[in-house]
Design a protein that fits this description.
The chain has 379 residues and is an alpha/beta fold. The protein has 14 helices and 17 strands. It has helices spanning 38-55, 69-77, 91-103, 117-123, 143-149, 163-166, 171-178, 188-205, 233-240, 286-294, 301-313, 323-330, 337-346, 367-377; strands spanning 6-10, 13-17, 20-21, 31-32, 58-62, 81-87, 110-113, 128-133, 150-160, 209-219, 222-231, 243-248, 255-258, 273-279, 321-322, 351-354, 357-363. 51% of the residues are buried. The model has no long low-confidence stretch (mean pLDDT 96). The chain binds S-adenosylmethionine and zinc ion. The site of zinc ion has 8 residues, from loops.
Length: 379
């Protein structure tokens, strides 16, 4: 008897499935689907819309597609998507993906396979314009194959959900998986994204490939990066120039981006902790962000807000200041984010909100100035 399937409508796409789990790896007879990360998938669709606007028609290879939520949405909602290849080692997941493709009348542009992700990536005849890597936990095991499956100027989309490693609970696990130490600071979501980009820069450089980040975010425990891959030894060298460390003082909250390690805090003399090597360059490309905003459907409200914040913070330095954390240290109530930004701008500094946290700011002002501004605003 034909199994009764549940139908989710996400964006303009119908997703059909049964027996799904979202908070653990599936067992026999189950598939993975996380209904709570619609915004993360909206952002994927938006990124592909921007890619289509700037670079034209594209092929997509989703190496760990699950029941196809992401790739189906891109195939259905982005006109420039000519072919979407969905691969997953789970037969059941791919079976649901096929049924959803039929229900959305896009089966003619979809291709389904059941291989190991790396086998799928390496054996595909033509290189893809866009490659999607969305595993359980760390994407590190799949990166080498992903770089080999992408064409020059193509885009790699990568998720990391091993947050205890990426966000600094297990620093040495991050070193093993990302070739850089993480650090559990109040801005660790940005460190997570920068570690993912750092590993990508190193993996690409081995193959004479440079990377250019287009958009990055951290939403609901998903560190996501999207970057362009560009062939050329010089570009790979340039990319490596963007690697370094974030130094941090847990005592006075001083931080600094640096090419090397240093012993003590220049403000209070405490010892400095560090994260890295990681990516110190830009997290987003302004042109690309503009294309995302131009093509953003009305109903992608949360996604749009995240992209708007990306535009605000695009030229500001690494790390952000979490105002409630600073105020807790100062033992004072927290002023409005907008007021702190306004005051810093009045003083001649650059300052903006950040997509990483609603109660934080990015600024080129030193921590001392930020504390003074906060103290002045709180009577
Ligand atoms: C996080 S889920 C993917 C979710 C999907 N991208 C989405 O948006 O709903 C990870 C998927 O990877 C698949 N998987 C795990 N290891 C794999 C491997 N070595 N090769 C191919 N698929 C694999 C699992 O079956 C699972 O469906
Ligand atoms: Zn200090």
């Amino acid at each position: 008897m034909e199994q009764e399937l549940e139908e989710f409508l996400e964006g303009r796409t119908k997703l059909l499935l049964a027996n799904y789990v979202w908070d653990r790896a599936p067992r026999a007879g189950e598939v993975f689907f996380n209904p709570f990360i619609k915004t993360v998938r909206d952002l994927s669709v938006l990124v592909c819309k921007a890619y289509g606007k700037l670079y034209g028609k594209f092929t997509l290879g989703d190496a760990l597609a699950g029941m196809g939520a992401r790739a189906l949405r891109v195939a259905n909602e982005v006109n420039e998507c000519e072919e979407a290849h969905m691969n997953d080692k789970s037969y059941l997941a791919i079976d649901y993906a096929k049924r959803s493709a039929s229900a959305n009348k896009i089966i003619n542009k979809c291709v389904f396979t059941n291989y190991d992700a790396c086998y799928f990536l390496i054996n595909h005849e033509d290189r893809f314009d866009i490659v999607e890597i969305d595993p359980f936990g760390s994407p590190s095991p799949y990166l080498d194959c992903a770089f080999k499956a992408i064409r020059d100027e193509g885009m790699l989309c990568i998720t990391g959900t091993d947050v205890t490693a990426l966000c600094g609970v297990y620093r040495r696990v991050a070193l093993r998986r990302y070739f850089g130490y993480s650090l559990n600071t109040e801005f660790n979501h940005e460190i997570a994204v920068r570690l993912l980009l750092g590993l990508s820069a190193l993996m690409g450089a081995r193959l004479d490939l440079g990377i250019e980040p287009l958009f990055s975010h951290f939403t609901r425990n998903h560190a996501r990066i999207y970057f362009k891959v560009i062939r050329g030894a010089n570009l790979a060298d340039q990319t490596l120039n963007s690697l370094g460390y974030i130094l941090y003082c847990f005592n006075c909250l001083y931080r600094e981006s640096s090419k090397g390690l240093k012993g003590s805090c220049p403000i209070c003399g405490s010892s400095l902790s560090f994260a890295g090597p990681l990516w110190l360059g830009k997290l987003h490309d302004e042109n690309f962000i503009d294309a995302m905003l131009e093509r953003c459907p009305q109903e992608f409200k949360d996604a749009k807000n995240i992209v708007k914040r990306a535009k605000e913070e695009v030229n500001l330095p690494a790390s952000y200041y979490k105002l409630d954390y600073i105020c807790k240290k100062l033992k004072i109530p927290c002023p409005k984010v907008s007021k702190v930004i306004e005051e810093l701008i009045k003083l001649g500094y650059r300052a903006s909100r950040t997509l990483f946290d609603g109660n934080s700011i990015k600024s080129d002002a030193p921590i001392k100035v930020i504390k003074d501004v906060i103290l002045k605003l709180v009577p």
